[in-house]
TrEMBL record:
Record protein name field: Type IV toxin-antitoxin system AbiEi family antitoxin domain-containing protein
Organism: Agromyces lapidis
Domain AbiEi antitoxin N-terminal: 16-53
Lineage: Bacteria, Bacillati, Actinomycetota, Actinomycetes, Micrococcales
Gene3D superfamilies assigned to the protein according to its UniProt record, in alphabetical order: VSR Endonuclease
Amino acid sequence: MPVSAIRVRRLCTELSGVARTSELAELGVDAYSLRLAVDAGEVVRLREGVYGVADLPAEVQTAVRHGGRLGCLSRLGIDGVWLLEQPASVHVAMMRTGRRRFHSECRCITHWSDSRLAGPAVALDEALVQVLGCRGEEEFFVALESAMRKRLITRSGIERIRSRVPKVHRGLVGFARWDADSGLESLLRLRLRAHGLALASQIDIPGIGRVDFVLGDRLILEVDGKQNHVDGFDSLIGTEHARAAAASKRHKDLVRDAVAAAYGFETLRFDYALVVHDWPLVEAAILAKVDRGLHLRSRVAGRGR
Ligand SMILES: [Zn+2]
Ligand SMILES: [Zn+2]
C-alpha cells in the first residue's frame, strides 16, 4: 500500500518542510509513494534526493536547490526584519564541506559556514552574523535592532552574536537597544554616534507635540515620508487628493516649525531618501548646527519672555 500524498506532505512538514529521500524511507515512504505525492502537488522535488512541501517559500526552495539553506539577508526577510535594501538575489548558507549545485537561473550569493546547520534556514543569530560580513555595519545594526524590537531574538542570541563577530564590532552589538522605534532611528543613531551625538526619538515637546528626533537639548530632526513604503503613499502621488494632502501637511509643518522656533528650538527637516541615500548632505547640515552649539540650551540669557 503506497503512503498517501497527504501523509507524505505531513511527514515532510514534520521534518521542517524539507526532507531527504532516506529520511522519508525510514518513515515508510517508498519511491512510488513519493512520486504520487509529487504528481498530486503536495510536495516538490528540490534536488536529487531532497523534497520539500509545495508551499515552501520560493527563496527557501532556491537555497535548497543551490545545495544549502536560506541565510543572511534572505533569512531575515522571512521574519520581516527591517532591511535597508531588499536583497536582489537569494543569500544561501552552505556548510564548508557541502557541494554547490548548479540550478536554473542561479544568481545566489553563497555564504560558507563552519557551523553545523540544520533545517532549511539558518538561525536568526547566525543570519545576522552573516549580514555583518556581507553588507557591513549599517545593515547589520539596523537589522539587529529590528530583530530586537520585534522580539525575534533573545538575550542569549545576542550573546552568541557578540561572541561570533570580529572583536572590532562587539561595541556595536552593545550599542544596540531593544526599544529603537524604527529602522530609520537605528540608522540615525548609528551614524551620529560617530560624532559622539546622542539622539532621542519620538519626543513630546509641550506646545509642539511629538517630534521624530531631538538631538541634544533643542535640535529637532523631522524625517518626512518614512512610512511611504508602508502606507502606499507613493501610489497616491499625482492624484488631486495627494496634492491637497501635501499642501495641508506643508502648512502644518510650517506652523510646527514656527512654534518650535518660538520656543527656542531649531528644526531640520529631511526626507527618508535624503537620510538613506544622501547622508553627506544631511550630516553637513546637522554638524553646521552642532558646531555653532545650536543643539544645546543657550547659556546666555536672551531677551527674556
Ligand atoms: Zn549575504
Ligand atoms: Zn543558486
